[in-house]
Amino acid sequence: MSATTVQKSAQPDPADPADPVAAPQLVRRGRRGLAATLASHGILTVASLIALFPIAWLLFLSLGPDKDDYLHPGRIWDKRTFDNYAFVLQHTNFFDWMKSSLIVSLGTTVIGVMVAATTGYAVSRMRFPGYRKFMWVLLVTQMFPIAVLIVPMYEILSDLRLIDSYLGLVLVYCSTAVPYCAWLLKGYFDTIPFEIDEAGRVDGLTPFGTFARLILPLAKPGLAVAAFYSFITAFGEVAFASTFMLSDTKYTFAVGLQSFVSEHDAQRNLMAATAVLVAIPVSAFFYLVQKNLVAGLTAGGTKG
Q1: What is the pLDDT of residues 180-226, one digit of tens each?
Q2: Helix axes 131-140, 166-190, angle to 10 degrees
Q3: How far apart are CA 276 and CA 85, in angstroms?
Q4: 302 confidence band (pLDDT: 50, 70, 90)
Q5: What are phi and psi for residue 193, nearest 5 degrees?
Q6: I need a labelling partner for 184 at 20 to 30 A (CA). Which of 17, 167, 177, 297 fits?
Q7: Residues 104, 237: contact at Cβ < 8 Å?
Q8: pLDDT tens, 17-28?
Q9: CB-based contacts of 251-260 (< 8 A; 24+ apart in sequence)
Q10: What is the model's pLDDT at position 303?
């Protein structure tokens, strides 16, 4: 063995973590500095406060007994009360609004996700003539503003005798939710290996059986995102609901909130209390789907 070879073997390997000289360097590279840690925590704290402030402010305003307390928020704490909540629950159509909102929102979620899932799966797996153009047509339907769509939709629902009916409003909301959810789920189905479909056919499953028994269980995160989007779309929409629903008892929450505002008066304390109560169903639905929500939002972004 030559002297040069001995010298090279005697030199410490900088990549070896067991080496006493290289180890401190690896530790310094992997360790975040104190200033960077404090800065990141500070930014996250400020962002959290910004996000939570409107919610806390709404809760605070809902405790004011007078409709003009929002002009003098410093006086609310000394006379805070829950009378606004009692009035909303006892002397308004709150529970009728809740029933209407849940019927419309859940109906839109179930029907919209079913249609979007079958559409996204068909475009992802089947190569029928014009399948690419079909998805672009769905996307084009989202480009028209609500003001342009209200009149033709009203004419269609009137001919079908679906004005002032839950089914009519559900179908209108599905026309908004299905195109986006179909694109979302199509991208998610693209990430599922095609070999799973082939295995289902080998086992004797029909295409629909493969879709229902093999693909849908793997697509739960994507379905959760589509369901949440459909629910929120129907729950918070105002223009269609106020146009197509004529009975006070069939108003949704978003339309019912407008009853607290008139031409010369605005009961903002009752509106704030109602808004807090309205957030409860949405929070409950978010809690049910939040396990799969983050995974579904990040999936399907690499293939399209």
Answers
A1: 899 889 888 988 888 888 888 888 888 888 888 889 888 888 898 89
A2: 130
A3: 9
A4: very low
A5: -60, 140
A6: 167
A7: no
A8: 455 544 444 445
A9: 251/93, 251/96, 251/97, 251/100, 252/97, 252/100, 252/101, 252/104, 253/97, 253/98, 253/101, 253/278, 254/101, 255/97, 256/92, 256/93, 256/94, 256/97, 259/92
A10: 45
At 228, the amino acid letter reads: F
Do residues 236 and 290 lie in contact, with contact meaning Cβ atoms separated by under 8 Å?
Answer: no
The C-alpha angle 222, 192, 196, rounded to 5 degrees, equals: 130
Cβ-count burial of 17 within 10 angstroms (0-12 exposed, 13-18 middle, 19+ buried)? exposed
Distances (CA, A) of 216 to 114, 121, 213, 220: 11, 10, 7, 7
Amino acid at 163: I
| Ramachandran area for residue 265 (φ above 0: left; ψ -120 to 50: alpha; else beta) | beta
pTM of the model: 0.76
What pLDDT digit, counting tens, does each position of 138-155 carry?
888 888 888 888 999 999
Please choose, from the candidates 124, 112, 114, 118, the residue with its C-alpha nearest in 3D space to the C-alpha of residue 189.
Answer: 124
Residues 81 and 174 sit within 8 Å (Cβ to Cβ): no
Query: Cα–Cα distance between 227 and 221 in angstroms, integer?
Result: 10
